[in-house]
Design brief:
about 550 residues, alpha+beta, five-stranded antiparallel beta sheet, 16 helices, 20 strands, binds iron/sulfur cluster, NirA family protein, 4Fe-4S
């Protein structure tokens, strides 16, 4: 620092500057040395090691350097036209990019759309990104979110940057992070709504995005808020399930914990019910307990459910109270009033809003896939006939809200090849990506789902709602365990051949009827599923009492 070219004043300034840098380095350095900053992730890993635990490879990768600091690795690979190797792919997922080989030699980018509310401006740019950097189509997910597929290696960073520029930065949409927050899609429109979740979802979304400690959890984490309303949001399938209740003269959110349907568990309601303004702090405290104490030595036991199983709810909530430094508000669960059960067909068709003369249109999206042209067209419909908003639902479709000229909007949708009409079978059809785009899948769920729907609707007419969910593997992205009919991808051995097929589950339920379905027939070859379901449905229709749903069967 000393030498020709620097005046004494400049040298003094530089000395002071460097002293400050060294001091900050010391304050940030982890206790065990290394270069990563001391944060909640590092502290939790240190504690695991101190207890004699061996970190799984994903934890080692996070420990090597915080994944949020590894964006330059992603851009360098893109410049070289390379896709990442598995552990680098895990790091890339912190930034929303998933390498989905060998199913597709491409990236998939999963967005982050809090509450599923999308503006026409955003929808147009997503369509343009899908066209210019992806396969020209967009998939709607069961977290009221969008995915862009068939992204070449060199285009990954451009997709992420362009999404960030329209307020849809896909940070933390994969790997061990908090996924897109879901909430009632008819918020602000619905005559049945109890609480407006929008300000809470917005605050929570930005709290997560802007809190570095909340990236790098032991495993993925889901949060959902049900404010009442006509369309179920399936909050009971989330790690944190916040359900509106009326108690002690106020509307609050009852806390449920540990939902993970792939492991056949729904969130367990607790006696904790917080005011809307307390939700962000509560979620933050729960996350911090999970970050500090979740299992980092066994990926199969790393979800919140397993910490709850090991500790029990009383101890877990005690730890949450310790983080908050105050007791949680508790009430008698039996005294918590719930809103009426949702309408199972409110996500499709035309529905009157609480604003006189306005309607939301529930648009059917076959196989949950839109072309770029259709999404651009929907943006136009939303601007011309609504208020410029689109609302995605967990039922893999979308709403156009605030429509006065219903006939005009329906005609504009028809011109896009879209409609709000769906029979009971199509309305309740949910399918994950499947083998066409996911390496874990044992079956082509989207294609099989459409084939099953066509087969059934040609042969039977149902006058009651029915959910058929097809999931390609045990990750349960389409939540087969809560469907009336849940199909889980399975490999079926026939002689020397291994064929795609499904384990068939019956009797799952959601919302006020939430329950886990039971396996009735394992390993049915894909082609044999539709005839078997037809028999079951005919049997049900013949035997059912008036008003009885499939869930009562
Ligand atoms: Fe892929 Fe399995 Fe999820 Fe289907 S359920 S999208 S097969 S990970």
């Amino acid at each position: 620092m000393e030498g020709p070219g620097f005046s004494p004043e400049q040298q003094n300034y530089l000395k002071g500057f460097m002293a400050g840098v060294e001091a900050r380095r010391g304050a940030l350095a982890p206790a065990g040395g290394g270069t990563a900053p001391a944060d909640a992730l590092r502290a939790a890993q240190d504690a695991t090691i101190a207890r004699g635990g061996k970190l799984v490879p994903q934890e080692e990768a996070k420990r090597e350097r915080h994944p949020l600091d590894r964006w330059s690795e992603i851009t360098a690979r893109a410049e070289a036209g390379q896709f990442p190797k598995p552990i680098d792919d895990f790091i890339g997922r912190f930034h929303g990019l998933f390498f989905v080989g060998p199913a597709q030699d491409a990236f998939m980018c999963r967005l982050r759309i809090p509450g599923g509310i999308l503006t026409a401006h955003q929808a147009r740019e997503v369509a343009a990104i899908a066209e210019q950097c992806g396969g020209g189509f967009i998939d709607i997910t069961t977290r009221a979110n969008l995915q862009i597929r068939l992204i070449p290696a060199g285009k990954g960073p451009e997709v992420v940057m362009r999404l960030g520029e329209i307020g849809l930065l896909p940070r933390g949409t994969g790997a061990d992070n908090i996924r897109n927050i879901t909430a009632s899609p008819t918020v602000g429109l619905d005559p049945r709504e109890w609480l407006d979740t929008r300000p809470i979802v917005r605050a929570l979304h930005h709290h997560i995005l802007n809190t570095r400690d909340l990236f790098g959890l032991p495993r993925k984490f889901n949060i959902s808020l049900d404010g009442g309303g006509s369309i179920a949001v399936l909050e009971e399938t989330n790690d944190i399930a916040l359900s509106v209740v009326r108690v002690g003269g106020a509307d609050r959110f009852r806390l449920g914990l540990g939902g993970i349907t792939g492991h056949q568990d729904l969130a367990t309601p607790t006696d904790v019910a917080v005011l809307p303004g307390e939700v962000v702090k509560l979620c933050d405290a729960i996350l911090r307990v999970f970050i500090a104490h979740g299992d980092r030595t066994d990926r199969k036991k790393a979800r919140l459910k397993y910490l709850l199983d090991a500790w029990g709810h009383a101890r877990f909530l005690g730890e949450v109270e310790a983080v908050l430094a105050h007791p949680l508000p508790r009430f008698d669960i039996a005294a918590m009033q719930r809103p009426p059960a949702p309408d199972r067909l409110a996500h499709v068709g035309v529905h009157a809003q609480r604003q006189e003369g306005l309607h939301w249109l529930g648009v059917v999206v076959p196989a949950a896939r839109l072309s770029a042209d259709q999404l651009r067209g929907l943006a136009g419909v939303a601007e011309r006939f609504g208020n410029g908003e689109l609302r995605l639902t967990v039922w893999q479709n979308l709403l156009v809200p605030n429509v006065a000229d219903v006939a005009g909007a329906l005609a504009a949708l028809a011109a896009l090849g879209l409609s709000t009409d769906a029979n009971a079978i199509r309305a309740g059809l949910v399918a994950c990506t499947g083998s066409a785009g996911c390496k874990f899948a044992a079956a082509d769920t989207k294609r099989n789902g459409l084939e099953i729907a066509s087969f059934l609707e040609e042969r039977i007419t149902l006058d009651a709602p029915l959910n058929i969910h097809l999931t390609g593997c045990h990750h349960s992205c389409a939540q087969h365990f809560i469907a009336d009919i849940g199909l889980l991808g399975a490999k079926v051995e026939q002689g020397e051949d291994v064929l795609p097929g499904y384990d068939i589950h019956l009797g799952g339920g959601a919302a006020q009827e939430a329950r886990i379905g039971r396996l009735i027939r394992p390993k049915v070859q894909a082609e044999a599923v539709a005839p078997l379901l037809l028999n079951i449905l005919r049997h049900w229709q013949a035997d059912r009492q008036a008003g009885e749903s499939f869930r009562d069967f």
